[in-house]
Amino acid sequence: MASSWTGRRVRLRAIEPEDWTAFMRFADEDGRGGGRLELPRSAGSYRAWAKEQAVAECEDDRFRLAVETTVTGELVGTVGSHRTGPRSGWFEFDVTIGAAHRRKGYAAEALVLLLRFMFAERRYHKCLAAILAHNGASLALTRRLGFTEEGRLREHVFFAGRHHDLVMMGMLADEFERRHATGEP
User: Where are the alpha helices (DSSP H) in 31-167?
Assistant: First the structure.
């Protein structure tokens, strides 16, 4: 591994203003695949978002990083910490990989890099993930990485005309260290 932010498949880096076109393409390709229906966004809103992300401060260990391939340098998604409980030592992550780039190990490796940073450098004790129950790919990914299902919030999220369960997955720092000590996802 060349750095703490680089694995075999991906490198995590700051979001740059010119990344807006890739994020707009990801949203168009995905169509929110069974997720919440969002209002259409303009190209200008993607430009403004990327420009804002490029200069965003890391507040309370909440941040978003671009995920690019190590082979081509192509932007394939994002990963970040979006909620934190610094007093109690927990954080939540999110990861988004463009539809054309899924099932290639990018999300898994990006998450391992993020978890290693949050556990080893920021000294968090626990990572949480809130995943819609029908999102089998994300549930399988977190289980494969060593997360444990901690609970299910029944009919907790409403979209597409009905309520959906939310599955809470968790991993402790020592569980991560035992499973990922070698640096491999």
Answer: 43-54, 106-116, 136-145
Give phi and psi for 2, each to the nearest 5. -75, -35
Residues of the chain with pLDDT below 70 are 1-2, 30-37, 182-185
Tell me, rounded to whole angstroms, the distance of Cα 103 from its chain centroid: 15
Q: Are 111 and 81 in contact (CB under 8 A)?
A: no
pLDDT at 128: 97
Measure the CA–CA gap between 138 and 151, rounded to whole angstroms. Answer: 15
> Which residues are within 8 A (CB) of 58 and not within 5 positions of it... i.e. 6 or more apart?
none
CA 6 from centroid of its chain's CA atoms: 16
| Helix, coil or strand: residue 93 | strand
d(CA 178, CA 158) in angstroms, rounded, equals: 37
**Percent above pLDDT 90 for the chain:** 78
